[in-house]
Design a protein that fits this description.
elongated; about 0% strand; cytoplasm; about 70% helix; mainly alpha; about 90 residues; single chain
């Protein structure tokens, strides 16, 4: 019978191999940043140029398979009223 330590290791390895662990970490990171963000101080409206820059950065992250970083950026952009172009 497997020990608790062996079971924990097996679950962790399975979650890592499926990419689930990285997704969970990215989601937790995004939620922590969201919780720390001071919503009382409104952000200034983004210019067209800044919206374009943000979209280029997001596309770069996704193209290079930085999916979890892109998901954090996307969540932050949605909180600012951004809508994806693709």
């Amino acid at each position: 019978m497997a020990t608790i330590t062996e079971l924990k290791c097996a679950v962790r390895e399975t979650l890592e191999s499926r990419g689930v662990l990285a997704q969970l970490k990215a989601r937790i990171r995004a939620e922590v940043f969201s919780a720390l963000d001071d919503q009382r101080e409104p952000r200034p409206p983004l210019s067209h140029e800044n919206l374009l820059i943000n979209e280029l950065i997001r596309e770069y992250l996704e193209f290079n398979k930085y999916r979890y970083t892109a998901s954090v950026l996307t969540a932050d952009l949605f909180s600012m009223g951004w809508c994806p172009t693709s």
